[in-house]
Amino acid sequence: MGVEVAVEGLSKSFGSQNIWSDVTLTLPTGEISVLLGPSGTGKSVFLKALVGLLNPEHGKVVINGVDVCDCSESQLYEVRKLFGVLFQDGALFGSMNLYDNIAFPLREHTRKGETEVRNIVGEKMEMVGLVGSEEKLPGEISGGMKKRAGLARALVLEPEIVLFDEPDSGLDPVRTAYLNQLIVDLNAQTDATFLIVTHDINTARTVPDNIGMLYRRHLAMFGPRELLLTSTEPAVEQFLNGRRAGPIGMSEEKDSGQTAAELAELGEDQGVPEIIPQLGISPGVPERVAVRRRQDRVMADLDSLEPGARQAVVNSLSDSERARYGLAGDVPTGPVDLDAEQWSADNGDTVRLSGEAGFAGELSTEQVARLPREEAGAPSGDHSGPEAPRQEVPSASEQTPSSSGSPQPRPTPHPRRAPEQRAPEQRAPEQHPPEQPQPVGSAEPAASDGRKRRRFWRKRGDR
């Protein structure tokens, strides 16, 4: 389980050169965070300040109640045991094979026997996919293998905080994708707090739970990935899209007039960017609980976002996530259209959802009888008896009076067949025009006596 890292008002300079000032952020427990920024903005310096390798002029770095910037050597030594660090180039010892490189922290900082060391090293090498390469020297392996060996060494002490200093530098896109998946899976297995410094836009968009950006000697933004990915702040939007037009130039800053002209060339505002789905875990890896923690924070503060960002956040949720946060009783499969006026912090207001929810249910026999038939002119009544042909059944207002003057009751449906299951040959052909319906419920069969039939129609004609 990871620990929280709280940074308050941190400032660092080298002589008269200010690197950054008043940096304040919190790395949430067990989550993956990414720190972005143009080259030369002090991202690696920030990592060194976290582990106490550089002393800032002002501010605090609080870990487990200890301020790394103002503590004794013994306290700093204990705090550093919580860290694992993956350096840019792996920082492997060239004269040691991979096994000895990975075992070095265990032999240096613990009193474990070689049997236990061998078991731990073997477990971490299997975790990063280096089984069988124990005897190879760093000069005999590829850059991607060096990164993985450095990551295995960073994990042998079971750290609660892991720092990645540009883990994708020098790697091709395929190896970078494998490394990103490995980082996500490791976080799911260890629930440690990860901080990644990177320039890779795909990594920044898909891997982290939280994103921060250093720009112009200060922390421009830091927060959940949904906040940064929907940001319309020019510097953040320019960096995440990797475009030339914007306030960031070759020397980090541009003239304000040039920036305004370039932004005008981009045309009208394109609205809030779409949130790219986060990279999931590999099959067989336990669920990342950090995702739920981040989503809980985002949904708790959803009403503080701009309407466009708010809608983008809700649209990025899956059906099960929408149901979990009570966005709708019947969760639609399509996108959600959420207005600013229709949302409250406690989800008490109605949320308007676009898309149609499905319907499932059962109809009674009476409801089925009233359904329209597909066949033109097909009667919709029931049998009046087991052997009687199908007859048209009028509604209550259209029932024909009997000889006693009282309306006849609706016939009882056939006990063994639903109306729609009867074969077409059981339907009696129409013998009379629809405007002259045959009486229902007579004690005599409708077609058993021709004289009575003729007598009935003669009396009807007399009337």
UniProtKB/TrEMBL annotation:
Pfam families (UniProt xref): ABC_tran
Designated name of the protein: Phospholipid/cholesterol/gamma-HCH transport system ATP-binding protein
Gene Ontology MF, one: ATP hydrolysis activity
Biased composition (Basic and acidic residues): 417-433
PANTHER family membership: INTERMEMBRANE PHOSPHOLIPID TRANSPORT SYSTEM ATP-BINDING PROTEIN MLAF, PROTEIN TRIGALACTOSYLDIACYLGLYCEROL 3, CHLOROPLASTIC
Biased composition (Polar residues): 394-407
SMART domains from the UniProt entry: AAA
Region of interest (Disordered), ranges: 358-463
Organism: Actinopolyspora mzabensis
Occurrences of domain ABC transporter (ranges): 5-241
Keywords: ATP-binding, Nucleotide-binding, Transport
Source domain of life: Bacteria
